[in-house]
Amino acid sequence: MDSKKKIFIVDDDQFLLNMYTVKFSKNGFEVASANSAAETLARLREGISPDILMLDIVMPAMDGLELLRVIRKEGLAPNAIAIVLSNQGQAADINKAKELGVAGYIVKASTIPSEVLKQVNEIHEKHKK
């Protein structure tokens, strides 16, 4: 059985997407990524089934929270825990994310990649079924 954790990283910033893809890949994750909500939904509808969804909030066309709403509504990635990785650190954003059942909320601006990796691992351990 494949014990690699599967993470699906969604961010419209291609530089960050590439950096986190490398970071998680080098640390034993199987990584999928998308730089838009549309691409994310297309991949999930095709049947990709991650253990962890890491979403940015501020994206063009559809933000990460709206994306999460659609994912939940359509029953996509039912076993995935959602983690927000965003520069939006306001309480209102965090509360909105929590209402949608996110397992974790990481503020990009104050977290270096190795800390993001560590937090994602901790959140996953705590929430995995």
- Uncertain runs are none
- Structural class, by secondary structure, is alpha/beta
The CATH superfamily is identified as: Response regulator
Shape: globular
Q: Can you write the helix and strand succession as a string?
A: EHEHEHEHEH
**Average of per-residue pLDDT values:** 94
As for the CATH topology, it is Rossmann fold
Number of helices: 5
What is the total number of structural domains? 1
CATH class: Alpha Beta
Largest sheet strand order: 2-1-3-4-5
Describe it for me?
Helix 2 runs parallel beside helix 3 (64-74). Helix 1 (14-25) links the parallel strand 1 (5-10) and strand 2 (29-34). This protein has helices at 14-25, 37-45, 64-74, 91-99, 113-127, and strands at residues 5-10, 29-34, 52-55, 81-86, 104-107. With 129 residues, the protein is of the alpha/beta class. A five-stranded parallel sheet has the order 2-1-3-4-5, with helices on both faces. The chain is 43% helix and 20% strand. The chain is globular and about 30 Å long. It has one domain (5-127): Response regulator (Rossmann fold). The two termini are 17 Å apart.
Q: What does the secondary structure layout of this molecule look like, with pairings?
A:
Elements: E1 5-10, H1 14-25, E2 29-34, H2 37-45, E3 52-55, H3 64-74, E4 81-86, H4 91-99, E5 104-107, H5 113-127
Parallel strand pairs: 1-2, 1-3, 3-4, 4-5
Helix pairs in contact: 2-3
